Amino acid sequence: MSDSNPPTFLSTVLGTLEALAEPGTEPLPGLVSPDPLRPYVTLTFAQSLDAKIAGTGGRQLILTAYGRHRVEGRMRTMHDGILIGVNTAVNDNPQLNVRHLPFPTQNTHFQHYHHPRPLILDAQLRLSPTCKLLTNAAIGAGKAPWVISSAPPPADGFFAAEGAAEAVQEWEERKAALEEAGARIVLVERETLHPELPPTTTDLPVHAVLKALKDEGIRSVMVEGGARIIQSFLSASGTSGLVDTLIVTVAPMIVGRDGVGYGEGLEKVPGLLHLKTEVMGKDVVMGMKVVKV
């Protein structure tokens, strides 16, 4: 695999830039969603042989080799945004950049390569104002993250919980702290299945998140996890077709029963059309199109 060009695997699965464009410097224009109300979605993650993506309690696992990180870096340059859940953001404190790509002959990584916008699903605004995403952005080494959240339920009314006023105030304080640190808060409405009952979930509906991102100009998004996000997107794609491409890396490792997987409770799954499988060092990477069953 040449360092200066994307690997054949990505060209086959996702496509290529126009002939005159320098690889890695702009997102792929060919990643167009079939649904005008949402971005193109690439769901990608690494797992062990027993389908675990994290260790006990969500602890980060080093599942893939350095060569695969370069593929991941190339993949990131192809998308407008890169999305993870707040649990992954808190547990791993990732940078979500393309630092594993070859160092350019001129300028810095951030000046040379296209960096996707970090997108964090965080209903409760648990992201730290001192996380790497925000500290990198503050020194000009990355794009500031957008935090997709939802305003807490009103503190008054019949179903107002005890301490609701304090919860609303704390949420507003966390929002102000993140905005002061450089984050942008993008609000979506939580899905209310039973409006006559008090809210029981902090999850954000996938379709509403994607619509909000498309409205904000995000044309393609790379979804990386963690387990809850992977499960949410696979489930949503099984019913509504919200994922376009699935790229899974399998590492030669068994984590065991205490590891965190994504398959438990996954009832509605999408159909898959195999595009390409490639061995990259010790890992096996598979690319598939998501199709209706």
TrEMBL record:
Family annotation (InterPro entries): DHFR-like_dom_sf, RibDG_C, Riboflavin_Biosynth_HTPR
Segments forming domain Bacterial bifunctional deaminase-reductase C-terminal: 39-285
Pfam families according to UniProt: RibD_C
UniProt similarity note: Belongs to the HTP reductase family.
A single GO BP: riboflavin biosynthetic process
Gene Ontology MF annotations: 5-amino-6-(5-phosphoribosylamino)uracil reductase activity
Designated name of the protein: 2,5-diamino-6-ribosylamino-4(3H)-pyrimidinone 5'-phosphate reductase
Record field: catalytic activity: 2,5-diamino-6-(1-D-ribitylamino)pyrimidin-4(3H)-one 5'-phosphate + NADP(+) = 2,5-diamino-6-(1-D-ribosylamino)pyrimidin-4(3H)-one 5'-phosphate + NADPH + H(+); 2,5-diamino-6-(1-D-ribitylamino)pyrimidin-4(3H)-one 5'-phosphate + NAD(+) = 2,5-diamino-6-(1-D-ribosylamino)pyrimidin-4(3H)-one 5'-phosphate + NADH + H(+)
Organism: Dentipellis fragilis
The protein's annotated pathway: Cofactor biosynthesis; riboflavin biosynthesis
Entry keyword Cell wall biogenesis/degradation: no
Superkingdom, natural source: Eukaryota
Keyword terms of this UniProt record: NADP, Oxidoreductase, Riboflavin biosynthesis
EC number: 1.1.1.302
Role this protein plays: Catalyzes an early step in riboflavin biosynthesis, the NADPH-dependent reduction of the ribose side chain of 2,5-diamino-6-ribosylamino-4(3H)-pyrimidinone 5'-phosphate, yielding 2,5-diamino-6-ribitylamino-4(3H)-pyrimidinone 5'-phosphate.
